[in-house]
Structure formats: C-alpha cells, structure tokens
Write a structure and sequence with these properties.
Number of strands: 7
Low-confidence stretches: none
Order of helices and strands: EEEEEEE
Largest sheet: 4 strands, antiparallel
Number of helices: 0
Oligomer: single chain
Mean pLDDT: 94
Shape: elongated
Strand content: over 45%
Distance between the termini: 42 Å
C-alpha cells in the first residue's frame, strides 16, 4: 500500500487517556516539516519534562508521557499542562494525573 499523504492542516488531538494513571498519549498532525516542542509543566509553571524538542517531518506524530519527571521520578497526582509548539503555533492542554 502507498504511504498516507501528509495532513493538510496542523491539528493537535486531545491527550488520551485523560485522566491518566500510568501514561497518556498526545497525537498531532504536521502539514509541513518544522520545529516541534512538547513540554509538561506543573500548575506553578515549573517544567516537569521535555517530551520533544527537535525538527519533525510532515505527517502524523504521537508522543507518550509516562507520568515521570526529567529525573525519572513519578509525579504526584494533580493537574499538569502540555505546552505544545508546532511550526510556530502554540497551544496547551490540561492533563489530570490520578494515582
């Protein structure tokens, strides 16, 4: 089968599952190659973890967050924010961690 054509528009899908107990996945579509950065922050605005910080090709992408911080420790229950920067566009999503 032929590979799927790249998406036509930039789209960020809701993180799922949300709330999360062990992990959640964030999916997005890039219509053209570009810089991508996905970071997790706590409600105080402190960066918890960087999931992606690099150039990505056009296409469908997914990144998983396993509920851990940069040091590998499990974060506590609560509300966290995905800050998503894709090709010059910025958005954010709330994710609830339950333990």
């Amino acid at each position: 089968p032929a590979p799927a054509p790249p998406p036509v528009v930039l789209r960020v899908y809701p993180a799922a599952p949300n709330p999360m107990a062990r992990a959640t996945q964030l999916r997005f579509d890039l219509p053209a190659p570009g810089a991508a950065r996905v970071r997790v922050y706590d409600l105080r605005g402190a960066r918890v973890r960087t999931l992606i910080d690099r150039e990505l090709p056009a296409g469908h992408h997914a990144v998983e967050w396993d509920g851990r911080d940069e040091a590998g420790g499990r974060v506590g229950a609560g509300l966290y924010l995905f800050r998503i920067e894709l090709g010059g566009h910025r958005t954010a999503q709330k994710v609830v961690v339950v333990r």
